[in-house]
Amino acid sequence: MFRKFLPHDFNFFDFFNKEVDYVVQAAKLFNEIVKKGEVDQETREKMRTIEHEGDKIAYQIIDHLNKTFITPFDREDIHALAKKLDDVNDMLNTIVSRLRIYKIKNVDEILIEFGKLIEESVNSLACAINHLNNMKNANIILSSCLNMNRLESEADKLRDRALEDLLSKEKDPIEVIKRKEIYQDAETVLDICKATAHVIESILVKQA
Q: Deepest in the core among 17, 107, 160, 190, taking most CB within 10 A?
């Protein structure tokens, strides 16, 4: 119902779909990286490229938001949604960068578990975004948001278990510091997905 009021040269829904596609690509690549247990230069550059392309889409959304009088939903929600999607990509890029800088080159079962949670959460995020252009899809969108909330709770438990095991079993304090930071950053990705779900839920409430 909103499309007829929007400028023909820019469709916010299409650009959100493009932005979340880069988030999906980043989550999938992250999952591949942690299963492999090492970040080579080519893979590092691939993640950096995904993050950069996602940045460009986020910038275009916000730039057009500043130029557009009529928007499909509240301007602050458009800005928040673009920013949160960008934050997911930024954090995944940061984790991959640290894995390489810290020279972590072994398969870490905890990171593999985080990789699965992140990819599932991001796929739910993509589902919500892809259906956002039609409020008749509210049940599908809400179900995706609820799944992101559930996965964030699982990630909290995984982080706590990971830190407990790390502190009790790892004797090298430097290794403790490195892995503790990476585990916390991985959990932060799920936090951001949950925060994004809250933005989407806010949009649903306002459009109901």
A: 190
